[in-house]
Design a protein that fits this description.
Layout: E1 13-17, E2 22-26, E3 31-35, E4 43-46, E5 56-61, E6 66-71, E7 78-83, E8 87-95, E9 107-127, E10 138-142, E11 145-150, E12 153-160, E13 166-168, E14 171-179, E15 183-192, H1 201-219, H2 229-241, E16 243-244, E17 249-250, E18 273-274, H3 278-287, H4 291-305, E19 315-316, E20 327-328, E21 342-343, H5 354-369, H6 375-391, H7 410-428, H8 436-453, E22 455-456, E23 461-462, H9 476-480, H10 489-501, E24 503-504, E25 507-508, E26 523-524, H11 525-537, H12 541-552, E27 564-565, E28 572-573, H13 579-597
Antiparallel strand pairs: 1-2, 2-3, 3-4, 5-9, 6-7, 7-8, 8-9, 9-14, 9-15, 10-11, 11-12, 12-15, 13-14, 16-17, 18-19, 20-21, 22-23, 24-25, 26-27, 27-28
């Protein structure tokens, strides 16, 4: 792996996590990203957005090396093997799961170094920089161990068989030999407003082993046996890392401000939960057999949205908060000079009508396949449907959160139809109060608007908006959510138009028009998987399978995918790994298998 100006390629990262926070581990052994205490917090390691000043935990051979990586089978425990002229070592990394039977750290990073052959000289460097460097890091020794803190956050480093620990300018470092058969261990508890627990070696090793067993047991429940099982299992394991265990929320990605184009300004914070992902998330989790996670996520977004119902905010904090104010950290350099670095997300203040279709579809999926919706919640859902019936004629910012003027996005209107259609179904089943006469009337009005204002006969497809006569890949979601008849003329028309106007090989752009943000962007991987799923639903299974095979092959060496990709260089772009991309992969794989089995 070669860093560029101190930055690792996005493709060269792997993800580890513990249900509270996540860390990015580069191929060269450096941990360059770790928010503390939670996934949406400020960073203690944040070198992905400032190579010079950002904190990191480096661990690698002193001499030149080559690496191979993999997750342990069915697990989110990462193994990196370094091969040098002197020998081979394996580094195992995990944010280990809390041991409930003994006193143990709430957040704990464990790094184990095993000598496999020869003798390799290893070096390491720990440089915590709390709160994106806004606070001065104070360091010292506690019980002979390196300790660093700032404000309410702290870390304590324990090492075994790693040589002496040198401390200079707040940074701990050292080097040691790793001969064949040796085992060295680093243990880094991370604390926030609580006493720090000093672990012993045996306990840390037991938690590392137990964490691996937990992940294997959990992932073995995946109910999918098609040709892309490895990719599906890795996707669901990645999605589990994006789950915030204390609430059940699922963040869009564990990172902030990785750019959609190198050097550009399309840099956003995705460490929030987007309600628009609700239907795809519920569908994927239910189909794969993870009903507990589906139920937790469903009740999280129902409770979070009650703060604003019947209006629904498009995104919420992992604790259900509505505070997501966006700010630019102008003092940071940004990934490879991509500025500004943003934390928070101002899109929360936008009107995006498509979110209502996602919510009502999610309620429908939950009620049919998971559990009961209580009466109070049913009344709240009916009020959301009433809100859609009243407001579907409003302009909005659309699914892509454009920062130009609002307009009548066709995808948003169609998903309002989905919302009212599902509300009628729920009312018929007795799940919610019945006001279906009004809902059906408004649903018919929406369909009339979409068919008359949104269809382009010459193009043979829907368009982005009546005043934007261009294509938008989100129109594929009309196919996926049942607005059009599967395999019908309009269903296939949208597919062909997307392939013709937005596809570059297997990759698909969201749109080609303006969106109020300067600069270029890459192809959007979710849209590529949407196209594969749409082909499957249109009974074009061979085409869907061919495209799916090409897309799955685009993942990095550990099976993860980013938000976007440069079609020319195949460089990963945007926040990583991207939950919606992996959801789209899962749903496309399942749809293709369903289509194969249908007569």
């Amino acid at each position: 792996m070669q860093r560029i100006d101190g930055y690792a390629p996005i493709r060269d990262y792997a993800l580890i996590g513990d249900g509270r926070t996540c860390a990015l581990v580069a191929r060269d052994g450096a941990i360059d990203w770790l928010p503390l205490p939670d996934v949406d917090s400020e960073g203690v390691f944040w070198r992905i957005v400032d190579a010079e000043r950002g904190g990191a935990f480096e661990l690698q051979p002193e001499e030149p090396f080559e690496t191979t990586r993999c997750y342990q089978s069915g697990s989110n425990v990462l193994e990196t093997t370094f091969r040098t002229a002197s020998g081979t070592v394996r580094v195992t990394d995990a944010l280990v799961l809390t041991d409930t039977s003994t006193l143990a750290p709430m957040r704990e990073l464990v790094r184990k170094v095993e000598g496999l052959s020869g003798a390799v000289r290893m070096r390491w460097r720990l440089a915590p920089r709390f709160e994106f460097g806004r606070r001065e890091t104070k360091t010292g020794r506690r019980e002979g161990r390196y300790f660093a803190c700032a404000g309410a956050n702290g870390v304590l480093l324990s090492t075994w068989d790693t040589g002496d620990v040198d401390v200079e300018d707040g940074t701990a470092s050292g080097s040691f030999d790793a001969p064949a058969g040796s085992e060295a261990l680093f243990d880094l508890p991370l604390t926030h407003r609580e006493p720090i627990v000093t672990p012993g070696r045996r306990g840390a090793e037991e938690r590392l082993d137990r964490t691996g067993r937990f992940w294997l047991e959990w992932s073995s429940r995946t109910q999918y046996d098609g040709p892309w099982r490895d990719a599906v299992v890795r996707s669901v394991l990645a999605l589990k890392l994006l789950c915030f265990a204390p609430s059940g929320a699922i963040v869009a990605a564990p990172t902030a401000s990785l750019p959609e184009w190198i050097g550009g300004g399309r840099n956003w914070d995705y460490r929030y939960s987007w309600v628009r992902d609700a239907s795809w998330t519920l569908d994927a989790l239910i189909r794969l057999g993870y009903e507990d996670e589906a139920e937790a996520y469903f009740w999280w977004f129902m409770h979070a949205s009650r703060r604003t119902q019947p209006r629904v905010q498009i995104l919420y904090g992992v604790d259900g908060s509505t505070r997501t104010s966006e700010q630019d950290l102008n003092e940071l350099d940004g990934y490879r000079g991509s500025r500004p670095v943003r934390v928070g997300n101002g899109a929360a203040d936008q009107v995006q009508l498509d979110v209502y279709g996602s919510i009502l579809e999610a309620v429908s999926l939950y009620a049919k396949r998971v559990g009961r919706v209580d009466g109070t919640t049913g009344k709240a859902i009916a009020k959301i449907a009433d809100y859609v019936a009243k407001h579907w004629r409003d302009t909005d910012s659309g699914i892509w959160e454009v920062r130009s003027r609002e307009t009548h996005f066709i995808q948003s209107k169609a998903l309002c139809w989905v919302a009212l259609d599902r509300a009628c179904e729920l009312a018929e089943s007795g799940v919610i109060p019945d006001r279906s006469d009004r809902w059906r009337t408004e649903a018919e009005a929406i369909r009339e608007f979409v068919d008359e204002k949104g269809w382009d006969t010459e193009r043979g497809s829907y368009v982005r908006a009546p005043d934007l006569r261009e294509l938008d890949a989100s129109l594929l979601t009309l196919n996926l959510l049942g607005y059009d008849e599967p395999g019908g003329e309009r269903f296939n028309g949208v597919i062909e138009a997307v392939k013709r106007e937005l596809a570059v090989g297997p990759l698909v752009y969201r749109y080609r028009g303006e969106d109020g943000v300067a600069g270029k962007e890459g192809a959007f991987l979710t849209c590529s998987f949407w196209l594969a799923e749409a082909l499957a639903r249109a009974k074009r299974v061979d085409e869907a399978s061919e495209l799916m095979g090409e897309l799955v092959a685009l993942a990095n060496d550990v099976g993860l995918l980013a938000e976007e990709m440069d079609p020319e260089t195949r460089e990963f772009l945007g926040n990583f790994p991207q939950g919606l991309t992996h959801l789209a992969l899962v749903n496309a794989a399942v749809a293709i298998e369903d289509a194969r089995r249908e007569p």
